[in-house]
Task: structure prediction
Amino acid sequence: MGGFFGGNYMANFELEPTWTREEMEQGKSIVILGCFGFPCLLAWFIKKDNPFVKIHRGQQLLLAICDIIPVLNLVALVCQIIGLVQVLQGNLWKVPVLYDLSRKLGW
Result:
C-alpha cells in the first residue's frame, strides 16, 4: 500500500530531522509560544530558517486549526500539552497524522 492518499509521501522528506543544540536553543522560545495556538504563526516569520522551528511550526498550525473545531478541541489541547513538554526537553514529538500531513504540505 502506498501511504498518504496512496502515494509514497515520505520520498521527499528526511527520515529524521536534525538540528544543532544552538539552533534548538535559539528557536525554543518561538516553538514554546507556538504551543499556545495561533501565536504559532510567528514561527513563519521569526526564525523561519531555523530547523527546530521549521519542523514544529506545521504541526502547531494544524493543532491550532483543530483547536477551533469543537469536536477536536480536547484532543488538540492534549497534543499541545504533550508537545510543550517535549519542546521544553528539546525533543520532537511527531503528532500522529498531523506530523505526516504537515510534512506532505511542505510546512
